[in-house]
Amino acid sequence: MSKKHSHKNSNSRKRKGPRPPRQHQGPHSRHHSKGHKPSGPSQKKGAHLLEGRVQANEKGFGFFIPADGSEDAFVPPRLMNGIIDGDLVKADVRIDSYKPGKFIVESLELVKRSHNTVVGTLFNEQGQTFLKPDDTRLPVAKVEKGPIPPVEGQKAVLRISQWPGEGRRLMAGRLEELLGFPGAPGVDIKSVIRKYEWPESFPQSVMDQVARFPADPGPEDWEGRMDLRHLPILTIDGKDAKDFDDAISLERLANGRLRLGVHIADVSHYVSEGTPLDVEAFARSTSLYLADRVLPMLPQALSDGLCSLREGVPRLTVSAFLTYTAQGQLQGTEFRNTVIQSGRRGIYEEVQAFLDGKATPEIKSKYEPFAATLQDMLHLSRAIRKERERKGSLDFDFPEVRAIIENGKIVGVQQKERLETHRLIEDFMVSANEAVATFLDGKNFPTLYRIHEPPEARDLEDLTTFLDAYHIPHKGLDLSTPQGMQKLIRSVQGGPWQAPVSTLSLRSLKLAVYATRNAGHFGLGLDSYCHFTSPIRRYPDLIVHRSLKKARLQSTPPPKSRHLDKMALQTSEQERKAEKAERESQRILQLRFMEGQVGRTFPGTVRHLTAHGAFVELEALGVEGFLPMESLTDDLYTFNEGSLSLNGKRSRRILIGDKMTVSVANVDMVLQRMTLTRIYERESTNTPKP
Predict the structure, then answer these.
(1) How far from each other are the two terminal CA atoms of the chain, in whole angstroms?
(2) CB–CB of 337/266 below 8 Å?
(3) How far apart are CA 492 and CA 553, in angstroms?
(4) What is this structure's pTM?
(5) Radius of gyration, CA atoms only, the chain
(6) For residue 358, how far is the Cα from the chain centroid?
């Protein structure tokens, strides 16, 4: 099972101070930003307390992140006593009198703990066993006596019974599970699963419900549905994919028009509201895609079976039909409950080779029956993309760095190329998502939208500082609009500033979230957007399917429910949690691989500079490491914040984008950081490992 392109702008929060290594990912995938800040909490002063979560910092302070999306506030160390990263709190927020325009928390009230368990490594000291958490923001915990005997050096899960604070110096708890020694096959990923408390199995009530479903739908299931089994329909996914939740078709109509069919698994036909299966799916809200496995939102009997649009078997679907002119202009949309039968299980790389005329005879014969359809799809996707780019859609096109795993062990790191077939599917899925959102918005029908609001001036500060420091033209560009941001990114495309400008532009964007209000999607340049195309792995898509079915039958929309707002918050939070786990699983395995590369030399590119040193990307692998200031021995460097450079006393200078040779000095699995040493030409004696 593999994850299809997500069609989303979802960004993790960044805090001021030394930045961690950045993650390069596409505009519809997971990436970073400063957060979602439509307004400041100053509008809600007085006796009213804001509810939100605390993001802790290793240095003892924290940030309060309001649930209503208003401006973050600084939490002083004196208020962090006993508060742990992720805790739900109520806070009294005030304008910071020492920092105009900023906010500070004056008091905190704990509402709910974020952690029931903690994952770490066991160690002994003075006859007592302790657990050192993997999350360095959490305190050391004392291990109480229990039925599971501790083994020093092993990773373990501790069930917390005593929280820090209130005069107690340490957390405490009983061992719940021994995971094994660090580095052993499977232990790293299992540690991530336990850290984020993600379920690996389904409750018996859910499995009992699933057992009552048929293996395949029968004729009685498609009564009243449009029968599309005669159409040439295919899926295009990764070669390891098993859950096929979208299929596509394309028909030629009169006057050169084209009718695109986007056929999505009808999960809502099987997952009824309020059932055990629905409750569990909502609790998870998303499938979790780790480096070596998938923990699905739905049991495999559905995700890989009954709801998966497999080749050669009938499946129930909800179809969006989009009619276009030959130039890619949308003329009309229609939505129907359908039954399809996929005629081909397409694979991105194979379809790309076929379209490029480079396919092997075997691959060519596989796709030859779809030759005309695939060519029409390629032309339509390009026309749709051109129209979307005209509206300001952003495309950062960062390569995806993935760990290569064989027999449970990490054997390499690879940058995954983004093909035009990936873009083709993305173009069609985004179009279907937009069409459904536009339809529901037009009927004023309650649902969950995928919103991505424009950046404000403060969000763009780092980007504009960099542009000014490096004399990159941007005057006259309104970077708070998709068109302005797009023009900037295009202006540096293919040059030395493409990576840093794209990265900083990405970080300037707000957080894409689920919401009951339609606020448009900045990154895609769209007025209306939702998630409709992946109900197997995203609960918001399931909500949208239910809304679409009801909206097609009801002329009068129901009143908006406060429960839907809570669902938006829950699914957004679960998405953030899953993204953190997914990134961490990749980072851990990448670092495990780099442990075997210590002492080796690589060409690198400077991606970010701080007062403490430089973050350098190893060009051969796409993995980023930290080059501390003390490793720069050819001069005495200081960081110039105005020019974003490291300036040496003897006129030497290090800039973002500079090329240099580095050696892997150390890999710290606890801090999840790789430390580099700069190698000067006279010292370079070995070459990178392929």
Answers:
(1) 28
(2) yes
(3) 49
(4) 0.87
(5) 26
(6) 33
Three-state SS at 59: coil
Kindly state the tokens that stand for 470.
Answer: 């490096």
C-alpha dist (Å) from residue 661 to 423, 602, 688: 34, 6, 10
Pairing of strands 73-75, 50-56: unpaired
- Alpha carbons 334 and 29: distance in angstroms, whole number: 28
The amino acid occupying position 400 is: E
Name residue 369's amino acid: P
* Calpha distance 259→249 (Å, rounded): 8
The string of pLDDT tens digits covering residues 127-145 is 999 999 998 888 899 999 9
Residue 618 vs residues 69, 303, 415, 422, 600: alpha-carbon distances, Å: 36, 37, 11, 25, 11
The CA distance from 627 to 345, in Å, is 46
Decide if pLDDT at 570 tops 80.
yes
Q: What is the pLDDT of residue 411?
A: 86
| Helix (H), strand (E) at residue 191 | helix 187-195
CA–CA gap between residue 455 and residue 38 (Å, rounded): 9
Structure tokens at 147: 């039925």
Q: Let me know: does 203 contact 280? Beta carbons within 8 Å.
A: yes
Interior angle at CA 535, CA 531 and CA 540, nearest 5 = 50
Rounded distance, CA 645 to CA 246, Å? 47
Rounded to whole angstroms, the Cα distance separating 589 from 581 reads 12
Q: How far apart are CA 91 and CA 109, in angstroms?
A: 6
Which amino acid is present at 287? S
The model's confidence at residue 24, banded by pLDDT at 50, 70 and 90, is very low
DSSP letter at 466? H
Q: Are 84 and 55 in contact (CB under 8 A)?
A: no
Quick one: pLDDT band at residue 10, thresholds 50, 70, 90? very low
CA distance 294 to 287: 7
Is the predicted pLDDT of residue 53 greater than 60, yes or no? yes
**Residue with tokens 């990265």, as numbered in its chain:** 503
Query: Pairing relation of β-strands 88-95 and 103-112?
Result: antiparallel
What is the residue type of 156? A
Place of tokens 């179809």: 319
Average pLDDT, the chain: 88
